[in-house]
Fold each of these.
Amino acid sequence: MAAGQTARSGANTLLLEKMPRAGLKLRITGKGRCNLTNTADLNEFIKHLRPDGRFLRQAFNRFFNSDLIAFFENLGVPTVTERGGRVFPASGRAGDIADALLRWSGDCGVTMKTRTPVESLLIKEGRVAGVQVPGVSSGKGSAAFHSNSVIITTGGASYPLTGSTGDGYRLALSAGHTVVPVRPALVPLETQGDIARRMENLNLRNVKAGLWTDGKKTAEEFGEMGFTAFGITGPAILTLSGKAVDGLRQGKKVSISIDLKPALDKKKLDERLLRDFDAHGRQQFKHILKGLLPRKMIPVCLDLTNISPEKQGHQITAVERKRLAEWLKNFRIDVSGYRPFDEAIITAGGVDTKEVDPYTMESRIVKGLYFAGEVLDIDGDTGGYNLQAAFSTGWVAGRSAI
């Protein structure tokens, strides 16, 4: 996006890509479907970005979700909007987005060099002067491309096999920038004990997951989640994961509470349990639970509530019924860790936005140096927020760099 915007304005534009092919990460995003953006209005959109979504207000004012949708439709990639305002290419193929961008940038006049990693920035008297790259073609140790403007769009550190190995942070540091410590975000969480493993491959819908840090609820999400051999994942958990990771890195106790019956308050849930036990008074408790829980969850429930599975419905005491209700509304799992960058959808942390002009994406430290995308200290929830931030900052950086 950045390269195309500079080239279409007549600037001599070179795009350096260290991988054999461009757009590898874009091709796998959204499970290969590419959740481009979200139809949320500006103020709501900004709420889904951290640590300070307001940094992007100026960029969004110039190029936002409706502009992005129109941009791709003009390139022959129609879109569809799904639940939660999530926008996808109608084909359901992320590759269509990557291919369209490559065609468009080429048509705009961008020259691309693949397999060309940038070793260092050339900076003279506080102004960027180009970049240093391996000098394979020249036979020298390294070669230089001279330029009045350089835009760093190297992404974060997640999915490193696609080329996102944190190169941009190294370059930013060499230019004197502050890099907020990077860590995985939108990442599955690891949990203590064997509870998750016992429910491996079980997915839950319409549950409420709460994040607890040192005994205080710090966030809450409604939606889907699932259990794996190592812990928990799914949209609700991924959204909570950023704060969970920060808590763990600070040495705090982190746990997830799961409300399995969010549609029922405690009083209505107790009435429901009373009805079930009355209606199935002669059935064993373990069989009555089939009407309340998925099969894989029943043994876990029996263990954690300490109610005899053989007990008949009419034998369940008021104390036991209350214990069951409390567990259904507040099933707790302690978080012990998080998965590595290989499994993280995005990266939190990056170039400190206080050192970047929000109107242009230009460095406040080095003239002619620009940043766009995930290399910046901006990360968002699932739902298209991160890609829109990347496209909008790329659009602004590209327009500003000329």
Amino acid sequence: MTTKLKVTTVGSSAGVVLTKELLHMLRVSKGDTLFAIQTSRGVELTAYDPEVARQMEVAERVMREDRDVLRKLAE
């Protein structure tokens, strides 16, 4: 799917208007935060925060590696 977006003036800044379909595909609504990520293919617009995902991977690894210690602490 290709959607043409027009850059428009928003106050003293510039912005684009996202269609309802794009908002639905991104699973966001007004007030949500989007991230513009530089990739090898260009810029990707996403609701996915790569830093939070990286932190979650670290947390999951720690939980797997230290499962017994965490279980004992929970007692």
Amino acid sequence: MSMETPLGRVRGLGSSGEGAHHWWIERLTSVSTLLLLVWLAVSLLRLPALDHPTIVEWLAGPLGAVPMLLLIVSTFWHLKLGLQVVIEDYVHDDGAKLFWIMVLNFAAILAAALALFAVLKIAFTGSAD
């Protein structure tokens, strides 16, 4: 029989202090993604046409490229945070949890990098080819 009090047995096993920060960042990215998606919809509706040359010309300018880059970062960051919560909640084996969070991080960074590269290529070369 242990001489420890119940509080003594659980001390140090509580929250790591990261939950509130994670929750707050997830909310901020959701709001920023929503606002940037509204910007995207309004911007596309204001274009004279939605053909390839018009979209490329629009993305080649700073008023199209910079918010699009912010949308990409915000969207993939929000995706990563949300899927990380799912993994943490439903994968119970610590090794598997670490593995899937690493896969998620690499996949989110790779996908975001590809999207950022595509927009930057158009912005700096004026062509998608």
